[in-house]
Amino acid sequence: MLLEGKNAVVYGGGGSIGGAVARAFAREGARVFLAGRTPGPLDGVAREISAAGGTAEAAVVDATDERSVEEHAAAVLESAGSIDVSFNAISIRGDLQGTPLSEMTVEDFALPITVGTTAHFLTARAAGRRMAERGSGVILTLSTPAPALSGRDRRFHRTGGLGPACAAIVELTKQLAGELGPRGVRAVCLMPDAIPEAWLDDFEDEPPGEDAGKALDYMNAGTLLGRLPRLVEVADAAAFMASDKAGATTGTVVNLTCGSVVD
Question: Full-prediction pTM beyond 0.85?
Answer without folding.
Answer: yes
